[in-house]
Write a structure and sequence with these properties.
By secondary structure, the chain is of the alpha/beta class. The protein has helices at 3-25, 43-57, 60-67, 97-109, 120-129, 160-169, 185-196, 213-226, and strands spanning 27-36, 74-81, 85-94, 139-148, 173-178. The protein has eight helices and five strands; from the N terminus they run H-E-H-H-E-E-H-H-E-H-E-H-H. Strands 3-2-1-4-5 form a five-stranded mixed beta sheet, with helices on both faces. Helix 6 (160-169) links the parallel strand 4 and strand 5 (173-178). The longest helix is centred in the N-terminal third of the chain and has 23 residues, at 3-25.
Length: 240
């Protein structure tokens, strides 16, 4: 083969593998799923919570949002938090429908690593101090997606809003999904709005209860992954 033929062949090969390689080098979004597993989240609620997250990821709208960006990929990590926080599913790059399905299956099979107290600040500090540095590839945007059914009750050295402000200063966004069920349901959305969310464009999108998590998460994922405007909320509807 002559030199010019080799050059043409290599150029053709690069045109095929180049976009795929580029997608592997950067993600559109790095998403931290920070899930409450404190004492108020019993076994039944835990299953509803994890099934809701998994089901939301598998919807066509969310799949399109994940794979429709410039890099056609998202990296995601699942953190369960209560008195302390645990990485349940480590950073995973989602760049195909099969990747999304496999991650959803891992969520459904995830063990509950819970304890009694609701220490949101502790979880957010671990995310800020350790987990973001472990991202496998750079991302255009970093979003921490905090969900739960209660206020922080651990009297932390750094309150939730302080850690959130530090995350926002680093360029991250903290969004909130309060689950409005139980003793704190009437005050939780306002508390998330005033203390949890942080960063440019951050928003709160509540779930009407544990049975509503799949619907709320679906809207939340589409909004934060695609940078769309947050949808209007009607907590009286079971399917939005």
């Amino acid at each position: 083969m002559k030199h010019w033929q080799i050059f043409v062949a290599l150029a053709a090969l690069a045109s095929v593998i180049g976009p795929a390689a580029a997608r592997d080098e950067r993600a559109d979004i790095a998403l931290v799923l920070a899930v409450d597993v404190s004492g108020s989240v019993d076994g039944k609620r835990y299953v509803l919570q994890m099934e809701g997250i998994a089901a939301a990821l598998e919807t066509p709208e969310v799949e399109h949002a994940i794979l429709g960006g410039a890099h056609q990929s998202m990296e995601v990590i699942l953190v369960e938090w209560s008195t302390k926080s645990n990485v349940t599913i480590p950073w995973t790059l989602l760049s195909s429908p099969a990747d999304i399905a496999q991650f959803a299956a891992k969520i459904r099979a995830a063990p509950r690593n819970g304890d009694q107290f609701t220490c949101m600040s502790v979880a957010m500090r671990q995310i800020a101090d350790k987990l973001l540095a472990q991202m496998p590839v750079p991302a255009d945007r970093v979003v921490i997606d905090v969900s739960g059914d209660g206020h922080d009750n651990c009297n932390p050295a750094k309150p939730v809003e302080t850690v959130g402000a530090e995350l926002a200063a680093s360029g991250a966004i903290v969004n909130g999904l309060p689950i409005l069920e139980g003793d704190e349901a009437t005050t939780l959305e306002a508390w998330y709005t005033n203390h949890v969310i942080a960063g440019a464009g951050a928003f709160v999108l509540p779930a009407a209860g544990f049975n509503d998590i799949a619907n709320a998460m679906r809207h939340k994922f589409v909004t934060e992954i695609s940078s769309a405007e947050p949808p209007p909320i009607d907590l009286n509807q079971g399917d939005r």
